[in-house]
Structures are given as structure tokens and as C-alpha cells.
Amino acid sequence: MPRAGIDVIVPVCGAPEALARCLASLEQHVDAGLDRILLVVDGPQTQAVELVIAAAAARRSPPALTVLYQPERAGYPAAVQRGIEEGEASGRDVVLLNSDTVVAAGWLDGLAAAAASAPRVGTVTPFTNNGTLASLPRPFEINRLPTGVDTASFAALVARSSRRLYPRVPTAVGFCFYVKRSLLRDIGSFDREAFGLGYGEEVDFCLRATAAGWEHCLDDATFVFHEGQGSFGRQRDRRVRAAERTLARRYPDFRRRLGAFMAADPVAPARQPILDALQGLARTAQPAAPGHEQRRPGVVHLVHGWPPENFAGTELYAWWLAHRQKADREVAVYTRSLDPQLASGTAVELVDLGLRVRSRVNHFDQRNPLRRNVLYDPGARADFGRFLDQTRPELLHVHHLAGHGFSLIDEARRRRLPIVLQLQDWWLLCARANLLDSARRLCPGPAPGRCATCLPLTRMTPSPGVNRLLTRALYVLRRHRARAALAAAEVCVAGSAALVDSFRVRGWLPREVPVHLVPYGVDATPAGRAPEGGSVRLPLRLGFIGSLLPHKGLHVATAAIANLSASQVRLEVWGDATVDPAYAREALAAAGSAAVELRGRFAEADRSAIFASLDLLLVPSLGLESYSLAAREALACGLPVLASNRGALAELFVGGEPCGALFDPDRPGELRAILERLIADPGAIAAWRRHAPRVPTLDEHAAALEPIYDQALESARRRARGRAR
């Protein structure tokens, strides 16, 4: 029976080369007499994009191809809505297609057949190389087509091998999905207000559809190639994090449902015959599709938190780095979750923009870090081992063991997996991670007596009144495990000399383990640098960004501005006051009558905009900072920094003119004196701006890690050869 006509809606926003490939495939594999291609051009485009559209329009005239223009950029959901409204009168079903895809023969017939397989199937997603749950051959990964295979031949293999099971999935995948017009009339279209320029809108749409009794299926007989990341460019990362927060608020159980789906893998029976067919493909021909070059050795990143749940410096750095690396190698992440709806020990897998992320729940927080200092955790070790067996990395990059325990290192060593260990802070030296004692004084370093006093404060022991001998024994055991972790590394990496010196001087880092000093990178696309010149007027706009915990020193900043008038200074505090409410109240009260505004948590996408609104960033840390990503990001945006002279912060202005000033946080009068001088002469801030240093980009940082990875791999190979003799 012939199928009805379909509207193929393609939102256009940049990426001219990918768009040209997409349109060429559509012109070849869309029936001009039956179906329509609706290009929705979202706002002004580059000349290259306009030329691609003009060429396509010259080859195929309306109604076979219709170009719809939105004069101002409104975002993907609005573009989709424009296309849907264009076809409303016809009653056609629609296919929403990214402009960085390539289709093959029979793709629309396949999607339509899957949609007709059951009356309550509302959406259909094809197999792809890069589409989370729809990915082939490995789900939830970005796959490369086999060597010598192009989109057409791979799609033909999928069609030949398929059993047409049409397995049900929890949501469609936005790169390409079929939507019945009856579903659109039932629940409406995407939520433009909540999802703005795009990302996450299709998940929200599908979950609303599920609630209304509709189903979503995967078309296991159709394949569409997806390049990925071509439609929206560099702002993708920020938008996806915002979307994840919105989805988490609306559907708090969705992560659990998706994790259960991944664990059960109902798509496996549909995937297996295709995997079997792939075994017979030749692997010697040159790649036919763009970007299919030889990939670098795969890596697993081990870190103690992950956005959007955790937004501290280490977590953000690992997130950025992993996403930069995934274009060139297989990348996976093993992390820890604090999901209050899940019991400790529960493991959940999600996909973050093509990254496989496995989170094991371990309920600790800064007020009760019992699990942060775990020494042995057989359950975590076993789960991590299974993850390594599944991902089969060639390298392990360890960012932080807090909340995991040292036994994960044992599991990597058992597999003789090369380890790059990044010194992110002082956690290996200090159970409290900041080398501060109970009186907020800087500790000279670990020792049995000193640590026996501090360990109860971290609840490593059952209670503060535990036998002191037992506490000393726990310290000795922790020291042994920490030193063993350092010795297990092929290579160590650190962002500051202060951090390296701490471990070297105290003898915890073996001399035979090489250490590379590699400054961290920052986002290369800040909202905009502060003007280099220009006047600065009172009141001075001060900002504090970070954890509202004692070692971050907010109370130092508020004490320094105590009782200054609102016409002189205003302080904005950006951070979560619920982590340690008692301390937050204490720190804010120290400001007296000064103008202080608690702004709470913030979207990471807003960070550079916050910097642009300030005159000065205050970083009054009591503990030793290992790098201070916030300070470097501020400098990258041209924002002067007033920082304590602790740890890596003392290196902020080494080798150049200062863009700010340093002070001793144990002498509260020093910061006050700096602020009073600036109140008297705010023009000094404008002068500092002219000396804003160049901060390395994350891309530059990632490139600097490549020879270090190579060194770790070569070191492991030498060890293996030595064992073989």
C-alpha cells in the first residue's frame, strides 16, 4: 500500500559543509512528487550557508523544496514549530532532521513503516552512528563507520539484516525522528519557552507524549548518518547543561528510568543481527565519510562528580576535557552521584553528548564526608572493574578518588592499565583536602598526631571520641593507600608548582614518577572581555563565586567590607548556601551593614556574563588552592582579581604585570586596605584591566596532554616488555 506524503523539516543554523551534504542526500532520496523538504533558516546566516541554500533551491523548486526564513534567530524549537505550522493544513506527518545528517535510499519508507506498525506509536527514530540509544554498533557512543564503508552501503546492510522488531525506547533522539501529525494535535509541539535555542526539547516532548499514552519506537531497519555537533556550534555545551537542569526538575525519575533502560538494553535483539553482519565487512579500504580518521587510544576519566549535579572546578574541568577528547578517541567517564532518590551503591548510566557516563551513588556531602574518605569499597571496585571490561580503555585518567576510594586504583593495576594521575588538590595528603585544621589555620602537613586530631572531623572514624590509637592507625592506613596510588601512576599532571612542591617536599610522590606542570585551560568563548580602559565608578561591584564553605574564605571578604557604605562597595555572593547553612549565615553576618546580596547557585553558562558585570573578583581562600579555575576564568575575561596568597593563587601574576592584588587572609586588614585604596582611586582597576594575562584555552590544554598520554602508554609498554623477559 503506498504511503502518504511526509514533510521533512530541516532547521538551518550554520555549518555550510554539513548542510550541503545533507541536502545532496535529501535531493537524491526524497520523492519530489510525494514528499516535501522544508528548510527553516533560523536567523541571519553566513554567505557560505546562503550559497548552499540558493544552490539547492535552484535544483528543486517548491513545493518539493520550500525555504522558510526567520529574520531573527529564535532557536531550534521555534524553527521546528515554523515547519510544523507550514504543513498543518495538509495533515502530513513530519520528520525532524538535523542539518548535519546524511540519509540513504528508502529511509522515509522505513520510518513510515515503523510508524504504521502500531496505532499508538507516536515517534520513530532510526539507527545511526551517533545518537545515544540509537547508536550502532555501540550504543551510547559516537561510532565511526567501518573502514571502506559509506552511508549508503551501511544503510543497505542495516536494512538487509534487520528483523524489524521496532523495539520501544523511552524517548526519540533529536538528530532525526518521525512524528505523527495526530500526536502533534494531541499534545502540541516543543516547549519553546523552556528550551530556548534548543537541546532537551525532544526529550520533554516525548515524555509528555508518554504521559498521554503514546509510544516511541526505534526503526531497526533504517540508518541515518549523523556527524554531530554541526548545527549549533560552540554554545552547545552550555545549552545542554541548562536543558538537563530543566528536565531534572520536570521529570525527577527520568534518569532512573533511562538507567533501567540501559541496563535492560531492549534494543539488543534488534542490534545483534546487524552486528553479526558487520563481522563480514572488509576493513582495509579508506574511509568514505568525513572525519573518519584513525582514532587515538581510548581513555576512561575517573572523577568524583559530574555536571549538572556537580559544578565545582575539578568536575567542570573533567567535563570540558572529556568532551574535547571525544572527537579523536573513545572516551568514557566513571563518576559518583549524590542522587537522593537512589540508595548508595546504585549504579546508573547516562549519555552526555555522546559520552558514556557511569555514576555510582555514594551519599556524602561536605558536612558529612564519610564516604569521601573511604579506604576500601569492594562494591565500588567490582562495579568499576565491570565498567573497565565493557569500555576496554587503553588509559585511565584519574582526576579524583573522593567518594570512590583507593580500591579503584587496585582494579586498574590488576589490569595493568596505564594511569595518568592528575593532582587536583591536596586530598591525597589531607583527608579534609585543604590542609586546614579545625581552627581554620593552615596545617604544615600530615603527621600522625595532627591527623589524629583532624580525622574525626571528617567522620572517617565512628565519632570524635574514638580511641586516639585507632585514629592514628587509620591515618597510617590512609597514608599507605594514598602513597600507593601515587606510585601506581605512570605519569602525574598538576596545574601549579605549589601543588607539586607539596607532594615532593613531603616525600609522598616517588621520584621515579614523572610530573608535568600543565596549566589548566579555560573556555575559549567567554561572553566578552571587560573593556581594557574606561572609567570605573563607585560603588565597586565585587563578586565571590564558589562553595560557601569555611576554606573558601567568604567570611574574610565580608569582614573586609564590614560596614562600608552601599555607595562604596556592593558584594554579590554566588554559591549554594545550603551546603553549610551555619557557615553561610556566619559569613554573611560578618559584613555588618555593608551591601551584600546572596545570589545563590548559577547556571554555568552565565559565569562569564557574571564576570562582565563585576569590577573585581574576590578569591579569599584560607586553604591552599591548587589552581583556582574561577580566578583564571576571570582573568581570561579581563576581570581583575583580589586573591589570597595561598597555594597556586600566589602564582596568578608570576611573569607579568598584576591584574589585581594578593593579600594574606590571616590578616583581615590587608584586604580592607586594598579595597579602601581602590575606593579612593577606582581608576587603578581600569589600569589593571590593561594587564589582563592571556590564559590558555582548554583546547591548548588538551593538546598539551597528548604527549603525556603517549609517555604513559610507552612507560606501560616498557614495563610489559620487562615482565616478559
Your description of this structure?
The structure is a single chain. The protein has 725 residues and is of the alpha/beta class. It folds into 3 domains: 6-278, Spore Coat Polysaccharide Biosynthesis Protein SpsA, Chain A (Alpha-Beta Complex); 298-517, 3-Layer(aba) Sandwich (Rossmann fold); 540-695, Glycogen Phosphorylase B (Rossmann fold), CATH 3.40.50. 37% of the residues lie in helices and 17% in strands. It is built from 24 helices and 23 strands. It has an 8-stranded mixed β-sheet with strand order 12-13-11-10-14-15-16-17, sandwiched between helices. It has a 7-stranded mixed β-sheet with strand order 3-2-1-4-7-6-8, sandwiched between helices. Strands 20-19-18-21-22-23 form a 6-stranded parallel β-sheet, sandwiched between helices. Helix 19 links the parallel strand 19 and strand 20 (595-600). The model is unreliable at 230-237, 282-293, 365-372, 459-466 and 525-533 (pLDDT under 50).
Tell me about the biggest sheet?
A: 8 strands, mixed
Percent of residues in beta strands = 15-25%
Q: How many E-type strands?
A: 23
Overall geometry: globular
- Structural domains: how many: 3
The top level CATH class name of the largest domain: Alpha Beta
Task: Kindly report how far apart the N and C termini lie.
Answer: 70 Å
> What's the CATH topology label of the largest domain?
Spore Coat Polysaccharide Biosynthesis Protein SpsA, Chain A
